[in-house]
Design a protein that fits this description.
Elements (H helix, E strand, L loop, with lengths): L4 H15 L5 E3 H10 L2 H6 L1 H13 L4 E3 H17 L8 E2 L5 E2 L17 H10 L2 H8 L12 H23 L28 H4 L7 H22 L1 H22 L3 E3 L3 H17 L7 H24 L9 H17 L7 H32 L10 E3 L1
Parallel strand pairs: 5-6
Antiparallel strand pairs: 1-2, 3-4
């Protein structure tokens, strides 16, 4: 190895902490873990270089870094730092008393990838506790529109398109779609209790909605909450929570109401709601207006679920269930704790993380096995015996 002696020592420490060996390579997954769990590293190389390392790690979690790449990154940081520094290079000491070259001391900010616009600031305020906001924004503008939050937007546009298409098909058959239905039950997207062996229906039903109120509520919630969460936590985390919540909703409904059709994105929507509420509850004292947030979302969820219960047990023509609501909320609560970002990990939060992960995996696998058994029995029966009720 060649380079500043302190950087050689630091890289060797990272190499060993990564996998317990000094093989000249540091995995990006290990690098990210070390940075987030070892605050002493920032004291050694400064916040600027630390942010640059974290950004490199999160840009490709499957990659690895060599010592030469480590040095090149340090030189890039030096070029930015030198440009913003007045006067000559003067060696400084970190909090441990070790002398650190000024080019790695992090006295100036690494350039941001995007300016903080009003929409960006609103997303940060909605999704991040006050006590973590400055720290998180310091990690190279993670919560920006690069890449833009396209998952929720594209999903919403596709759901609107399918709904309009279904309205046209129903109108052509003489049926008028109102606030609460009817849904289009003859397509390949809706969850059909007589076609459970067509496994894509356990997810594709999110594109079928039962009336104008149904699709309006789902779109309103997933846009208001989903976009800020996607800007903060990246699209793939929200995709994982949303789609897993939707699948859990169909799995639970298939067990609790086995003869019901299933339409709507309530499983995914309630997963997003629960993920956000879990963040509010765990950071109650740091969140802005936590009681108002909790009350507003509980009120919306209560109205939607109440209507679902009414149509499931009282309305004769259109029976609307609520199993997907409960299942999606459970997934959002558990999986949100596991996959949403948390740069300040406390001991009890680590315990909660493992508990949530194991409980989620246990319940999800149990629901899959249970449905597999039910499908095995169902295919041997007469499919015409299925009752055409609708759940959402």
């Amino acid at each position: 190895m060649s380079g500043p002696p302190q950087l050689q020592t630091i890289f060797q420490e990272l190499d060993y902490l990564d996998d317990g060996y000094n093989d000249g390579l540091v995995s990006h997954v290990g690098l990210r873990r070390i940075i987030l769990e070892t605050p002493e590293l920032e004291a050694e190389v400064g916040p600027t270089f630390t942010r640059a390392l974290l950004t490199r790690a999160e840009s490709n979690l499957y990659g690895r870094m060599t010592f030469d790449e480590f040095i090149l990154l340090a030189r890039e940081v030096q070029s930015y730092s030198t440009a913003g520094r007045r006067g000559g290079h003067v060696a400084s000491s970190n909090q441990n008393g070790n002398q650190v070259h000024p080019e790695y001391s992090g006295t100036v900010q690494y350039p941001k990838s995007a300016p903080k616009h009003t929409l960006h600031n609103a997303a940060v305020k909605l999704a991040i506790p006050v006590n973590e906001r400055d720290d998180r924004l310091n990690y190279l503008d993670k919560y920006s529109c690069k890449p833009p939050p396209m998952f929720i937007l594209l999903l919403s546009l596709l759901q609107i398109s399918v709904f309009v298409w279904h309205v046209i098909l129903l109108n052509n058959t003489g049926k008028t779609v109102g606030p609460n239905g009817p849904p289009y039950t003859k397509g390949w997207l809706i969850f059909n209790p007589c076609r459970k062996w067509q496994v894509w229906r356990f997810l594709s039903y999110i594109f079928v909605h039962s009336g104008y109120f149904h699709i309006t509520f789902n779109l309103l919630i997933q846009l208001l909450l989903g976009i800020p969460l996607e800007m903060v936590h990246r699209w793939w985390r929200i995709l994982l929570i949303y789609l897993t919540g939707a699948i859990a909703g169909s799995l639970v409904t298939s067990i609790s109401d086995p003869e019901a059709y299933l339409a709507g994105a309530s499983g995914g929507v309630y997963a997003i709601i629960a993920a956000h509420l879990a963040n509010v509850i765990f950071n109650w004292s740091e969140m802005e207006f936590p009681a108002l947030r909790l009350l507003a979302f509980l009120l919306l969820a209560g109205i939607d679920t109440g209507i679902a219960v009414y149509y499931r047990y009282i309305e004769v023509d259109t029976k609307v269930g609520y199993g997907a609501h409960v299942a999606g909320a459970a997934v959002g609560l558990l999986l949100g704790i596991v996959v949403l970002r948390n740069l300040r990990v406390k001991t009890w939060e680590r315990v909660m993380w493992w508990f949530s992960l194991l409980l989620f995996l246990g319940l999800f696998l149990a629901a899959i096995v249970w449905n597999a058994v039910l499908i095995g029995h169902k295919v041997s029966k007469n499919e015409s015996s299925c009752a055409e009720t609708t759940s959402s």
